[in-house]
Amino acid sequence: MQVGIDQIGFYAPNQYLDLTALAQARNEDPNKYLIGIGQSEQVVIPVTQDVVTMAASAASQIITDDNRDKIAMVIFGTESGIDHSKSAAMYVKRLLQLPDQIRAIEVKQACYGATFGVQTAKDFVRANPDKQVLVIGADIARYGLNTPGEVTQGGGAVAMTIAADPQILALDDATSFRSEDVMDFWRPLYRTEALVDGRYSENIYVDFFKAVFHDYCAQTGRTIADFTALTYHLPFTKMGLKGLRAVLPEASEQQQAILKANFEASRAYNRRVGNLYTGSLYLSLISLLANAELTAGDRIGLFSYGSGAEGEFYSGTLVQDTPQLNLRNWFDAYFKQRRECSVAAYEQQFQQQLPAHDVLLDTRADDARFVLTGIRHDQRQYVDRQA
Ligand code: CAA
């Protein structure tokens, strides 16, 4: 029996910052951001969106009357949680009217959380083939105004159902993972912005990729020649390129050209959304599916990296030929209707944090289906505008 990704959905708010404008405001050469970092736009998150609303919007695209009752577990990966105790999964469960006979849990290990969800879901579905698991990766990447990390901010959510006989990607059994206690990136509980040792984090990322990729190859007897595409966690798209370059010399010239072309397809959407931490690898997978010319049976590699640090390399084979026009059409429409934020408007929204007391928010500028309307009696108030 094959188990894997059956459906996949994405959501990010409808406003963005142009990074050429940001470069000008920060007295940087725009090519540093566009080429050196590999980002051209970044999502701006309004105060009326958080990981719960974004996750509910992403998941609402793939939860229908056909699969709602089959969902037995929600695994919500995030490092931008909204409560020290209650899981974000519980709110999503209610907003999507999922059944009560369900496990709803939040997991955290930086940008790795959703991958833990996928692997746990794979094992669960193997044992319970008539059930499905909803896996969510949702985050808001914040480093601060005028910091080196600012150009690598962003946010959004990816939701996936893991099921038997999947329609998108059948997961292979083999996987290689590794963890080490390192301080490359972290966010103490009292901070809303991450702390990062930037260059160090890049080096650890590449070291982890090489270690888990080669361990996977040793376990399976596969080589780089077995992959039509390698996808990466993309905190910024140049990072994935550095990962790819670390193993490209192992491929033939012809294979190198294929991997490079498919890498370009896999970073197209991330370039315009920015970092969504644990959802980034899966946005890159969507970008590949929507933009590359691949055929059913092609093997895709997935490298997941969460600072702190945990890395995992695993793989799957495509169930259908790509490009998947439904995904491409969705993203074409999304990018077309997004509105640009000036640098001043972005800075103002960046600084507008939720207060630590009851508040009523103005949601008029937010056209999302799910919005945060405020805090009442210390409880976040969520509204489904289609309810
Ligand atoms: N034209 C073209 N390229 C240019 C350029 C120009 N005019 N000016 C500079 N560049 C290039 C530089 O040569 C450099 O390229 P390489 O990385 O290939 O050497 C690149 O642009 C970046 O320049 P700097 O190194 O000078 O950039 P910086 O010091 O301002 O910061 C950064 C870069 C460290 C990535 C910083 O943005 C950062 O800290 N980001 C957050 C941390 C991060 O994302 N780390 C990734 C691994 S951790 C992870 O993956 C988990 C996660 O999600 C956070």
The secondary-structure class comes to alpha+beta
CATH architecture label name: 3-Layer(aba) Sandwich
Report the CATH topology name.
Peroxisomal Thiolase, Chain A, domain 1
Task: Please write the string of helix (H) and strand (E) elements.
Answer: EEHHEHEHEHEEEEEHEHHHEEHEHEEE
The level-1 CATH class: Alpha Beta
What are the segments in which pLDDT stays under 50 over at least 5 consecutive residues?
A: none
Described by the principal axes of the CA atoms, the overall outline is globular
How would a crystallographer describe the biggest sheet? 9 strands, mixed
Give the strand order, joined by hyphens, for the main sheet: 5-4-6-7-1-8-13-12-11
Give the distinct bound molecules.
acetoacetyl-coenzyme A
Whole-angstrom Rg:
20 Å
- Kindly give the count of domains: 1
GO molecular function: hydroxymethylglutaryl-CoA synthase activity
Active site: 79 (proton donor/acceptor), 111 (acyl-thioester intermediate), 233 (proton donor/acceptor)
InterPro entries: HMG_CoA_synt_C_dom (IPR013746), HMG_CoA_synth_N (IPR013528), HMG_CoA_synthase_prok (IPR011554), Thiolase-like (IPR016039)
Protein name: Hydroxymethylglutaryl-CoA synthase
